[in-house]
Amino acid sequence: MEAGLGLGKTGAARSCLGRGSFSCFDWKGLNTIILAIIFSVTASFDTAEKPKPFAVVELFTAEGCSSCPAADDLLKEMTEILQKEGKEVLSLSFHVTYWNKYGWEDIYSNEIFTDRQKNYVNSLKLQQLYTPQAIVNGEQEFIGSDPINFRNKVVSALGVNPVYSIHAQAKKENSEVALTYELNKEPKNVLLNIAIVENSIVHRVLRGENKDRTLKHYNVVRSFKTVMPKAKEEIKVGWPEGLAKDRASIILYLQNSKSLKITGAVKVDMQK
């Protein structure tokens, strides 16, 4: 019998080779199986990847605080130095609200950020709120303008093996950003923080302790959202009004819901 091309009941192409061979073998089905295996193996490699040590530095600052500009400058300087050394350092500036009553209202401040700092004060058993304060991986704190402590706390954090790795990508769609992420394991007792930051800001202050000064800010949090994470998910987040895409970054980080320890973090590349 000559080899010929036939169609099964489903209309799929089959190669009929006659007796003694694989009769009417479903090549289309085989291709589907092979592709499924390839994607499965690829996914397994991705999720099994060993998490890379990181340090998330959260600076609590304010335009109305005369001690804060030095910390703002140090955040940029030390982050860039440590990154050039090959260290995974992710920095964010949270502008708090309690300085607004002293003559200058910080347009980048948000009560949510003040509440976040209060949560750290409670979890770390500190006596009071203050600025500039820096928190590293939710566990260590120091005066944000102290360069020695900055390096020491970051290096200490980098010595800890993270629990989670995060693979993510983002694409801006008009007034929203579509965010897709995947964790290396099922999340347990953690929250996912989604921060959209403005990379660099220059702003003149007209009143208060920094009257007539032009201040420079680094990685200012413009949008912050906390959600219950899944092992894999696609979500949409509102984009800050007036923020150009080429001046922004997105930082994702997982945080223990009780201790506030940060257990996974990544800076997300924006798709063009």
Fraction of residues in helix? 10-25%
Arithmetic mean of pLDDT: 87
Tally of helical segments: 4
The unreliable regions are: 1-25, 32-47
- What profile does the largest beta sheet have? 4 strands, mixed
Order of helices and strands: EEHEHEHEEHEEEEEEE
Shape: globular
Strand content: 35-45%
Count of folded domains: 2
The CATH superfamily of the largest domain is Immunoglobulins
Based on the coordinates given, report the CATH architecture of the largest domain.
Sandwich
Structural class: alpha+beta
What's the arrangement of strands in the largest beta sheet?
4-3-5-6
Rg result: 25 Å
Secondary structure blueprint with pairings:
Blueprint: E1 4-7, E2 13-16, H1 27-47, E3 55-61, H2 68-84, E4 89-95, H3 111-123, E5 133-136, E6 140-143, H4 147-158, E7 166-173, E8 176-183, E9 190-205, E10 213-227, E11 232-238, E12 248-256, E13 262-268
Parallel strand pairs: 3-4
Antiparallel strand pairs: 1-2, 3-5, 5-6, 7-8, 8-11, 9-10, 9-12, 12-13
